[in-house]
Amino acid sequence: KPYKCSECETSFISSSNFICHQRVHTRERPCRCPQCGKSFTNYFAFIYHFQVHKGEHSYMCPDCGKSFARISTLIQ
């Protein structure tokens, strides 16, 4: 694995995963939500969060009919 973290010695195959991992140590959070100001280490975490603000409720409970933005919330 060509990318090795000098802080904790974790190795990565891709440079993008390595860069995201380094943010754990630097606490850099470059992706900021324009709605609430919460910040994230990577774009995908931001997109996952932003679904809450968009009001998209794609997951419907077959028992009660309520809909949720995240499947993890539906399962709870």
From TrEMBL:
InterPro entries: Znf_C2H2_sf, Znf_C2H2_type
Localization per record: Nucleus
Keywords of the record: DNA-binding, Metal-binding, Nucleus, Repeat, Transcription, Transcription regulation, Zinc, Zinc-finger
Any single GO CC term annotated in Swiss-Prot or TrEMBL for this entry: nucleus
Pfam families the record matches: zf-C2H2
Residue span, C2H2-type domain: 3-30, 31-58, 59-76
GO molecular function (one): zinc ion binding
UniProt keyword Zinc present: yes
Main location: nucleus
Family: Belongs to the krueppel C2H2-type zinc-finger protein family.
This protein's name: ZFP92 protein
